[in-house]
Amino acid sequence: MDFGKVPADSIKDVDFTLPEDGQQTLKTLAHLKPVKNADFYIGCAKWGRKEWLEMIYPKKTKEADFLDQYVKHFNSIELNAVFYSIPKAELIRKWRIKADENTASDFLFCPKFSRTISHIKRLKNAEEATDQYLASISEFGRFLGPCFLQLGDNFGPNNFEALETYLEKLPQDLEVFVELRHEEWFANKDIRTKLFEMLSKLKKGAAITDASGRRDCVHMELTIPEIFIRFVGNGKEFQDSDFARIDEWRVRIKSWLDKGLKKVYFFLHQHDEKDTPILANYTIEQFNKHLGSEVPEIKFINTGDDGPQHSLF
Question: Any idea what the CATH number is for the domain that residue 194 is in?
Answer without folding.
Answer: 3.20.20.410
